[in-house]
Amino acid sequence: MDAITTPPAPVNEPNLTYAPGTPERAALELELKRQEDIQLELTATIGGTKKMGGGAETPVVQPHDHGHVLGVLKNATQADARAAIKASQEAAPEWAAMSFDDRAAVLLKAADLLAGPWRQRINAATMLGQSKTAFQAEIDSACELIDFWRYNVHYARGILAEQPIANSRGIWNRTDHRPLEGFVYAITPFNFTAIAGNLPTAPALMGNTVIWKPSPTQQLAAHLTMELLEEAGMPPGVINMLPGDGLAVSEVALKHPDLAGIHFTGSTPTFQHLWSTVGANIASYRSYPRIVGETGGKDFIVAHPSADPDVLRVAMLRGAFEFQGQKCSAASRAYVARSVWKKVRDRFIDEVESIHVGDVTDFSNFMGAVIDDRAFAKHKKAIARAKRSKTLDVVAGGKVDDSVGYFVRPTVVEGGDPTDQMFTTEYFGPILAVHVYDDANFEKVVDQMESIAPYALTGAVIAQDRRAIAWATDRLRFAAGNFYVNDKPTGAVVGQQPFGGGRASGTNDKAGAASNLLRWTSPRSVKETFDPPTDYRYPFMDLG
Ligand SMILES: NC(=O)c1ccc[n+]([C@@H]2O[C@H](COP(=O)([O-])OP(=O)(O)OC[C@H]3O[C@@H](n4cnc5c(N)ncnc54)[C@H](O)[C@@H]3O)[C@@H](O)[C@H]2O)c1
Ligand SMILES: N[C@@H](CCC=O)C(=O)O
């Protein structure tokens, strides 16, 4: 069992501004230029050895300039998956036996390297590979990932310190927070470098070994994150990274008797597929695999008649359109009282139309491109449908262009029918549906939107009337795992607003919190008796 020491107390990593003339801006611009001029071989890492996957080749491109290749990956094959699982099994005994302090030190060092010399490497890769602006990269690939690593150490230490509170006389009870028996399969999404870095490392911190399958479109930043972890001292075989679409990897991993857990973030359909595959194979595992998944959303803003129009306008602009609406938390439906809409509409639409969309290395742009051709086609189709519909009115944006990059203008669609798919389907792009309601119908509208979509990830109420805030907070209690009052529904900060949702949005284990880390331990209760009985008979027994 681990000794309990006190690691450095975590504090949230401050966001650098990248304002003109700042040293961080100069360093980032230099690094962007460097990475644009090279093409990396985006290898698999198996047992510490780097080699290209054995399957089909995929170029990793800049979404805002899709002719520009940043690197090339090859899909991991079933043989690669088997080798990675073997490497994870070989590394497991030593890693599980290592003290918590040693495991924690790897992540604390990784956090400090990312806060320092690695910051602009990973930020630039996230900007180029995922088309994030400098600020969106900074809050994700630098600050949130640093926070995940530092806060997870803090929460994990709290878990280890959690011990039985009662000991009968002559007895010492202890809890041994063991890792799971087997490997954890971490499958990560394209949209957050921080999530991609957190999903394999959280189980590793608790003593598990991991197979990490990043999203192909996030592979550049994932590749560098793996290198950073190695520089921080992560031993070979603890995290084994397999690039590509994951289909062959799942063929092996989901049938393997040692599958001990899945740590997933991505879409609801993918998660449901993984869960049902595990269900179908349930008799073949050594233990019941832990399944943790954070998935899609149809996140809302509800504006009461008392809402401050400026607060609402900024919440909609930033909440719906930052990172092209490709945050699981992004506002994609707003319900606005008619009296407030009258005050906010014209300026809101003017500002949406004035948003600069383009290459993220041009710092005047507020938005970049959507991630790939599939996402572009989905958004194009949704906008075309809105333009054809009699009950929908495209009041801003609505233009798409994929000739150079996958660009979708921020789009606002007014809809009179709140049951339309605009209000229920996750498009995961810069499309905001707005339903304007008569002021007197506030409660009726909230009742309707509470469960019209299957998701329950994030949501916000904008109001100044305290009774309205209190009522909506209670009425929407199960409609969002992260609920905001007078703010946008995006931008959760580790340690402040633990993130995750319920219903179709996931298992709500809250990334970057103790509740998530607990899923990667299998506690053993140990009772030690100092003066054990030596006679089997009890005092009540009348033996004559
Ligand atoms: N709730 C959250 O915290 C959260 C955070 C980020 C993203 N998301 C959600 O993620 C989605 C967008 O991300 P995405 O497009 O990367 O999602 P996705 O489901 O398409 O892909 C997620 C990951 O699963 C992999 N994958 C797909 N099928 C697989 C299989 N059979 N075996 C192994 N791996 C497989 C993908 O390659 C990728 O790595 C949105 O729905 C968004 O809401 C949720
Ligand atoms: N945690 C992020 C969203 C992660 C999903 O994409 C936020 O709060 O905006």
- Specify the CATH class of the largest domain: Alpha Beta
Span between N and C termini?
A: 47 Å
The CATH topology of the largest domain is given as: Aldehyde Dehydrogenase, Chain A, domain 1
Which percent range describes the beta-strand content?
Answer: 15-25%
The helix-and-strand class reads alpha/beta
Strand order of the largest sheet: 14-17-18-13-12-20-21
Number of domains: 2
Overall geometric form? globular
* C-alpha-based Rg, rounded: 25 Å
Please give the share of residues in helix.
Answer: 25-40%
Largest sheet: 7 strands, mixed
If classified by CATH, what would the architecture of the largest domain be? Answer: 3-Layer(aba) Sandwich
| Ligand identities | nicotinamide-adenine-dinucleotide, 5-oxo-L-norvaline
CATH superfamily of the largest domain: Aldehyde Dehydrogenase, Chain A, domain 1
Count of helical regions = 15
- Calculate the mean pLDDT score and round it: 98
Number of strands: 23
Poorly predicted sequence stretches spanning 5 or more consecutive residues: none
Protein name: L-glutamate gamma-semialdehyde dehydrogenase
Family: Belongs to the aldehyde dehydrogenase family.
Keywords: NAD, Oxidoreductase, Proline metabolism
InterPro entries: Ald_DH/histidinol_DH, Ald_DH_C, Ald_DH_CS_CYS, Ald_DH_N, Aldehyde_DH_dom, P5CDH/ALDH4A1, Proline_metab_enzyme
